[in-house]
Amino acid sequence: MQSQIQTSAGNSRAAWMRVLSQSDWRDLESYAKEVAGTPHDLLRAPETGLVMLRGRMGATGAAFNLGEATVTRCAVRLVDGTEGHAYVMGRNAAHARLAALCDALLQGKDFGTAVSEMVIAPLEAKLQAAHVETSTKAAATKVDFFTMVRGDD
């Protein structure tokens, strides 16, 4: 069983990595500009490749290959030895590198809370607002179908 790394703010590593990967690049760049210059080494320079997307009919059927998606991955190491990793959809190498840097910083005791408050919290709020907006638009187009049953007369 994999252990979950927790920040002092209570965010798990899986949660912040989801936020970093799903956030818009311009938002991440804006919120993380203060930490972007943190000294680090590249363990794996940003590289773009393909991953196979798999699906299931009705979420219970046999798995099948749905198609491929482009992803970019990156791995960094901070001066103290902490490693950060990131996978992001698309070809944005800068997004992958900055997300990996934030991942490494979030694991540390010194900057974890600050990065969580400066970067993760506002990005998560933006993602939640976008989800609510999308759900609201979808709900507005919902059509309720019903069947009238005729009785035996």
List the helices and strands and how they pair.
Layout: H1 13-22, H2 25-31, E1 40-56, E2 63-78, E3 83-89, H3 93-107, H4 112-140
Antiparallel strand pairs: 1-2, 2-3
Secondary-structure-based class equals alpha+beta
Our count of domains comes out at 1
Enumerate how many helices there are, as a single number.
4
Largest sheet, in brief, is: 3 strands, antiparallel
Strand segment tally: 3
Structure overview:
The chain is of the alpha+beta class and 153 residues long. It has one domain. The chain contains four helices and three strands. A three-stranded antiparallel beta sheet has the order 1-2-3. Strand 2 (63-78) and strand 3 (83-89) form a beta hairpin. Helix 1 (13-22) packs antiparallel against helix 3 (93-107) and helix 3 (93-107) packs across helix 4 (112-140). It is elongated and about 80 Å long. Mean pLDDT is 87; it is low at 1-9.
